[in-house]
Amino acid sequence: MENSEKDMNAEEQPRAIPAPTLRRLPGYLQLLKSRGYAPGSTVSCTVIAQALGLQSIQVRKDLAYTGITGRPKTGYVALELIKAIEDFLGWNNTHDALLFGVGQLGRALLSYNGFRAQGLDIVAGVDCDNAVQRLDVHGKKVIPLSKASSLIRRLHIKIAVITVPASSAQAVCDMAVAAGVKAVWNFAPVQLNVPEGIIVQNENLAASLAVLSKKLNLSLKAS
Amino acid sequence: MENSEKDMNAEEQPRAIPAPTLRRLPGYLQLLKSRGYAPGSTVSCTVIAQALGLQSIQVRKDLAYTGITGRPKTGYVALELIKAIEDFLGWNNTHDALLFGVGQLGRALLSYNGFRAQGLDIVAGVDCDNAVQRLDVHGKKVIPLSKASSLIRRLHIKIAVITVPASSAQAVCDMAVAAGVKAVWNFAPVQLNVPEGIIVQNENLAASLAVLSKKLNLSLKAS
DNA sequence: TAGATTGTTAATCGATTAACAATC
DNA sequence: TAGATTGTTAATCGATTAACAATC
């Protein structure tokens, strides 16, 4: 009785997937794809783990989340595994995205073609600079900020990529969310405040750099 | 007796710092700096935690790693705290770095000025393309691959930033390590193999995207 | 003094790793 | 069959959160 909510949609709401698992899955995918497996050929957790410097049990646990089942002794059918990971991550049905802030980083992301294989299609850039608006970046239009809302609505865009300076990130985010965006991939070094239910994924170079420089300094001091 | 090694340099080798803590410290720093505290004015964990959406106890624990001590009731002296974090991360003594691969992303990183405040000074770019070599990116020279080794040796460069395509990342990494680099900030989507003691920090957009797209798909399905 | 906040020790939580039966 | 590998249950490890004494 007390957990009737949970019971009701037990199948819809499986145990939550650990973020570390989600973060490792693309690595498996990339490895598998790069190996060009023939249809029917198999691959074991041991092999994957060794190639990526992980524990095989960890790979096995991670793969289990995608719902794939392997066979004792032989492992997983490689092409099935690739499909299972892609389906699980939702990378087989692409979402359109709009990128805000066509500076150096914005241009780099606009012209990177790899995202489409990862479920993300950045359809256009947005910038308030007139000069920038005249650019086409890798065939992608750059539109003025004033036209962003209506484009989001018209194309039912669900993802905003934010590469504006820190000072304007919150305003841009608010605008995008108001227009209907459900997820924000944030490259600006600020904490964005969003309404309940809106997803924010921060890309935090400073955090990585902190880990790198601390380790390096410890290592240099030790020697 | 059995742990004599540990005892000998007990002060040199404090408990290891959790990576999650290291990754949060830059966020505190950025917040504190943005607030322009007057000398002597204080700030409490509660305030920091609230601004960043964290638990105050977590902030307190994180700050303790930097060695700073606060005062009950008042908190930490803000400017002391800023200095403590910067010193702890080593962001007060900058390391020179060399960036390999002056494509869109490489150019974006080369022209970003913020890294210097984070202990990283990218002194030049390296690219094998003749046309690219003629570019100066934001006043930074782009040198041919053949000159990279000697530059690393001459300037005692310890950090390589790798933004080359996946297919050449390992070769570039090997070369940089052979020339004396101790840490690699890797933006290429490959697992780099390095000798014992060399630090690799992977910047993994695909991993972030996996978290984002899974959350978004779950959220869209739910509604 | 009273109340807020630190610093520290203990409890909880979640992820990783280990163990092992099942099985192809 | 024998051996390798999966899938699952249990143990360990580490990070987060809670509790609380110390103190300004």
In short:
The first copy, chain A, has 223 residues and is of the alpha/beta class.
The CATH class of the largest domain in chain A is: Alpha Beta
Instruction: Report the CATH topology name of the largest domain in chain A.
Output: Rossmann fold
Radius of gyration of chain A: 21 Å
Count interface residues per chain for the largest interface: A-B, 61 and 61 residues
So what's the overall shape of chain A? globular
Task: Spell out the CATH superfamily of the largest domain in chain A.
Answer: NAD(P)-binding Rossmann-like Domain
Task: Please give a structural write-up.
The structure is a homodimer of 223-residue chains. Chain A is of the alpha/beta class. Chain A folds into two domains: 19-89, Arc Repressor Mutant, subunit A; 95-207, 3-Layer(aba) Sandwich (Rossmann fold), CATH 3.40.50. Chain A has helices at residues 4-8, 19-35, 45-52, 56-65, 78-89, 104-111, 130-133, 148-155, 166-179, 205-222, and strands at 42-43, 76-77, 95-100, 120-126, 136-137, 140-143, 159-162, 183-186, 199-202. In chain A, strands 5-6-4-3-7-8-9 form a seven-stranded mixed β-sheet. Chain A has a two-stranded antiparallel ribbon with strand order 1-2. Mean pLDDT of chain A is 92; it is low at 1-13. At the A-B interface, helix 2, helix 6 and helix 10 of A face helix 2, helix 6 and helix 10 of B. The first copy, chain A, binds a DNA duplex (24 and 24 nucleotides) through helix 4.
